[in-house]
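Q&A FORM
Asked by: J.P.
Topic: structure of Aldehyde dehydrogenase family protein

PROVIDED:
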Amino acid sequence: MKTYAELLEAVTAKSGDARDAVDPATGEVIGKSPTQTVADLEAAIDTAEAAQPAWAALSDDERKAYLHRAADAIKESSEALAELLSREQGKPLNGPNARFEVGGCEVWTRTAADTPLPVEVLIDDESGYAEMHYRPIGVVGAISPWNWPMMISIWQIAPSLRMGNTVVIKPADTTALSVRALVAVMNQVLPEGVLNIVTGPGRTIGDALTKSPKIGKIMFTGSTPVGKQIIEASADNVTRLTLELGGNDAGIVLPDVDPAAIAEDLFWGAFINTGQTCAALKRLYVHDSVYDRVVEELAKFAANVPMGVGLDEDNVLGPLQNRGQFDTVDRLVTAAKESGARVVLGGEPDYDAPGNFYPTTLIADIDPHNDLVVEEQFGPALPIIRYTDLDEVIGLANELEFGLGSSVWSSDRAKALEVAARLKAGTTWINSHGGLHPMVPFGGAKQSGYGREFGVEGLKAVAEPHVISG
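REPLIED BY: S.T.
REPLY: Here is the structure written out as tokens.
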């Protein structure tokens, strides 16, 4: 499955109930994703449950080797995977987009394989001896979103498999073909039954997955309201949970910055994946003394970043993945304009054009409690708020229920660290925003979820701690 045509042929539905997979840049139907049933899900869970003991019985080195072979398979089919991802999700091939995401799948799979997790000796002295082991949980249910459908799926799949679990994954409906393709590529080399996928509506398939007593762990990336539903649905079984939920990340620019020097990093912090990233910069607070210059430099850079159909090699911004998200961004920007906020760039979509393109939009001189500021827009529209008092702006950054990421921008590292320590978030970046490393734990605070992914902590999160004492 090294070509796009071969890959699409392998994963598109040939008969039965199916959902059209639509290119959000053109409106073209590119294939059909099977609409499966709860009975199909139960069969997949039974398959995973049956395969799990033999998978867990392999040595750690054997499971690592399988993951490296899966990473090799991803690499071999990388261009076909990137093209399908671009056509279905909308993100361009180039820039921090489709090829970048597929490459990330390979890297995160290899890192999950290679991260050491030795037995931990807890005490070894005259008081006694105790050590900590990490055992498989069993079957992991993974629910992945539409914004980074392949890479976030890998964040769920790779560590789960490494620790001896088997996986049943349910992807978002609108990017189901992309995840089906990823799973198909990996299953060329993985043992049968270890990695399973079921596609269908969240209200039926997702709900049944979270309620199944045979699922030992749920990993979910998505909205806070759906995360709360998962908590309720899984409670009777005391299912282990990792929830990476909504974010409305704040960035604070201190008065000592060089506006021209930070403009590019500010832009990509906010507009990576056309703003469709949980940990993107979604509200920017800039000190009054540098406000106008920061807005000017950011607009100057943003105006020259090409947006268009993802298969055009020149584009690095694409459409919004679905019309519902387009409508959300449009509603928030329209309300901001009507409130008297200043449109610096964009803000006027072409409603008659094909695709879900919303122009890169910067909104300045906006009230800190405007809906565009306090609601997660999840698209290419950034509100920029002027401030004068540091204590007040830290309060504004912290007052929302979200706490996924945040950032501080300053030429004085000591000052930046001082401000960062006061922000309530799972991650605070200094002079950047949203960068992730496969060895650095990632997750949210407050209603942005709980649990951590990546690195040693990510492996522990998909395992059962077992103390042996004596």
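FOLLOW-UP: The chain has a mean pLDDT of 97.
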